[in-house]
Design goal:
Layout lengths: L10 E10 L2 E11 L4 E5 L6 H8 L7 E6 L2 E2 L7 H6 L1 E4 L11 H11 L5 H14 L15 H13 L5 E5 L7 H16 L4 E4 L3 H7 L2 E6 L2 E6 L1 H6 L4 H10 L1
Parallel strand pairs: 3-8, 3-9, 6-7, 7-8
Antiparallel strand pairs: 1-2, 1-4, 4-5, 9-10
Helix pairs in contact: 3-4, 3-5, 5-6
The chain binds adenosine-5'-diphosphate and magnesium ion.
The site of magnesium ion has 5 residues, from helix 1.
Main location: membrane
Subcellular location: Cell membrane
Membrane topology: Peripheral membrane protein
Length: about 250
């Protein structure tokens, strides 16, 4: 254990490149995510936000560059991809929950199967987490009985149940009716208060501005501009960032 474990980046990307066929999607991405911070990834559709998150979770293999989780190179071919994924929670835009399992069963699946917790222990932990995050009454419901907002909240709870080192959220409110967005973002706020390290791809600019410690503007596969929310939203340096923000805000 190094002495700077308290402040050393949880996630670090160095010159990450990724193509699909002939299309170069990540053209040398550098990123550093400090412990207990929230990084918001903003940028136009197709700029590479999802690909970046998928590379971080080893759902995509990078072509070049390196990714480190707690200082350990996870893009090393000898790294144990399953072990890495156990340390990283992911929630996507939609369809995160298994429809044939109750909320409680969804949440206890990984703690039981992957982490070897007893059923009783996993269920007690899950009920406590659901209770704390305002979903206690939904534990025994099937996902199709929940609103989209409740489903996304349950998906976040499921990702947290294995106590990940890092949580990746990819446009988790994009498929929701506008009136349901607030409750999901509210939960993300609480998760931040608990100190979770997160990387969030989002089109919710007001939310990014409020919750993020660091904002990264992706443009055509590179982090074109990064900084505090005040800097990136308030006084963007790059002309392309200014144009993007004018269009979207
Ligand atoms: P964003 O999340 O910012 O909208 P993506 O990472 O989803 O951007 O996509 C970036 C580019 O990569 C897009 O042009 C998209 O079409 C392309 N892309 C993403 N995934 C694949 C894939 N599996 N195969 C081919 N092209 C892909
Ligand atoms: Mg995307």
């Amino acid at each position: 254990m190094s002495t700077d474990a308290g402040t050393a980046p949880v996630l670090r990307m160095e010159a990450v490149r990724k193509s699909f066929g002939t299309s170069l999607v990540l053209r040398g991405v550098d990123l550093e995510v400090a412990p207990h911070t929230v990084t918001a990834l903003i940028g136009a559709s197709g700029s590479g936000k999802s690909t970046l998150l998928r590379c971080a979770n080893l759902l995509e293999e990078v072509d070049d560059g390196a990714i480190f989780l707690d200082g350990e190179e996870i893009t090393d071919p000898r790294a144990d991809a399953d072990a890495v994924r156990r340390r990283i929670g992911v929630v996507f835009q939609a369809y995160n929950l298994f429809p044939h399992l109750t909320v409680l069963q969804n949440i206890t699946l990984a703690p039981r199967r992957v982490h070897g917790l007893s059923r009783a222990r996993a269920e007690a932990d899950a009920r406590e987490l659901l209770e704390r995050l305002g979903l206690g009454a939904k534990a025994d419901e099937y996902p199709d009985r929940l609103s989209g907002g409740q489903q996304q909240r349950a998906a976040i709870v499921r990702a947290l149940a294995v106590r990940p080192r890092l949580l990746l959220l990819d446009e988790i409110t994009a498929a929701l009716d506008p009136e349901l967005v607030g409750e999901v973002l509210g939960l993300v706020r609480e998760v931040k208060e608990d100190g979770m390290t997160m990387v969030i791809a989002t089109h919710e600019m007001a939310f990014a501005r409020e919750v993020a410690d660091q904002v990264c503007f992706l443009d055509a596969g590179v982090v074109l501009e990064r900084g505090t929310p005040e800097a990136v939203f308030g006084t963007p340096r790059e002309e392309r960032t200014q144009r993007f923000l004018r269009r979207i805000v």
